[in-house]
From TrEMBL:
Similarity comment: Belongs to the bacterial solute-binding protein 2 family.
Domain of life where this protein originates: Bacteria
Location(s), subcellular: Cell envelope
Keywords: Signal
Domain Periplasmic binding protein: 20-281
Protein name: Monosaccharide ABC transporter substrate-binding protein, CUT2 family
InterPro entries: Peripla_BP_I, SBP_2_dom
Pfam families: Peripla_BP_4
Ranges in a coiled coil: none
One term under GO cellular component: cell envelope
Single Gene Ontology MF annotation: carbohydrate binding
């Protein structure tokens, strides 16, 4: 008996122009808008005819969007999967249609769909490390005796929510000054972050640290804290991930402690990596993006380039 052949991602022909699909999941925050803009900005320089869709926060619509791109004959697919499991059918269908897929910024369940088999590669940040770096910064910079933490999680079932949670929780809990009293989803959205924080503040009025999985929820939490008469930056330490303009401003204003960068600017990297793939170079399963860290030491130096 022979072992069943391992799946392989479809090849990409070398061409003058490519029909490129970019399936955005939603456009409800500045990070998503910056990512989509990065693909549009890259299209001309990279000779792409870009088809970009917006699934408006629905994994089912994102799968349908990919279906329609396949029907339109795209050469290559760039996919930021909203959630880890529901987008697996999209990856599998593209593969069956002979279209090489690159996951960008978020990933899918690695037990089911694999880089180098079902899709070419994942281009993106190390979300576990981002959470770990926030935890390490808090351990070094929190000045109280007891840190009472509220955690605002990203979209349930998404790779950044899963990994930013484990990266932070596993490291912060090594220091017994810290306790996580509540951890709830705010769906990576400012409004929901504010609402969830309002509710959690009533149950846990003694909270003095808020860890949000992205800057939008951190800004929402700051609004809720201020509405409740708290003083973010003085009696509550707010920390998060991304590096948006509003977060850098909040750091400059003394309301936020740190944001670990998660870059949305994937267009140029997408162009470079697909060119290498078409040229027959081998692409690693994970093309890792290096992230900076923004604090009051450097936020003002970076706010002009922020989104
Ligand atoms: O996948 C990356 C995350 O998704 C960003 O941190 C967040 O702002 C976005 O919605």
């Amino acid at each position: 008996t022979t072992m069943s052949a391992m799946a392989e991602p479809p090849p990409l022909a070398q061409k003058e122009r490519y029909k490129v699909g970019f399936s955005q999941m939603e456009s409800n925050n500045p990070w998503r808008i910056a990512e989509t803009k990065s693909f549009h900005d890259t299209a001309e320089a990279c000779n792409w005819d870009l088809i970009a869709t917006d699934a408006a926060g629905s994994a089912a619509k994102q799968v349908a969007d990919v279906d329609s791109m396949i029907a339109q004959g795209i050469d290559v697919l760039f996919l930021p999967p909203r959630e880890e499991k529901p987008l697996i059918p999209a990856v599998m269908k593209a593969q069956a249609a002979g279209i090489p897929t690159f996951l960008v910024d978020r990933s899918v369940d690695p037990n089911v769909a694999k880089a180098g088999e079902h899709y070419v590669s994942f281009l993106g940040s190390d979300f576990i490390d981002q959470g770990k770096r926030v935890a390490e910064w808090v351990i070094e910079n929190f000045e109280g005796d007891k840190g009472i933490i509220v955690e605002l999680e990203g979209t349930t079932g998404s790779s950044p929510a899963n990994d930013r949670k484990s990266g932070f929780d596993d490291n912060i809990l090594k220091d017994d000054r810290f306790e996580i009293v509540a951890s709830q989803t705010g769906d990576f959205a400012r409004d929901m972050g504010r609402q969830v924080m309002e509710t959690l503040l009533q149950a846990h009025p003694d909270v003095n640290i808020v860890y949000a999985h992205n800057d939008e929820m951190a800004i929402g939490a700051i609004q809720a804290l201020e509405l409740a008469g708290r003083k973010p930056g003085e009696d509550v330490l707010v920390v998060s991930i991304d590096g948006t303009r509003d977060a850098l401003q909040a750091i400059i204003d003394g309301k936020m402690g740190v944001t670990v960068e998660s870059s949305p600017f994937f267009g140029p990297l997408a162009c470079e990596i697909m060119g290498k793939y078409a040229a027959g170079e081998s692409i690693p399963p994970w093309v890792k993006v290096e992230d900076r860290i923004f604090t009051k030491e450097n936020a003002a130096d970076h706010i002009d380039e922020a989104y």
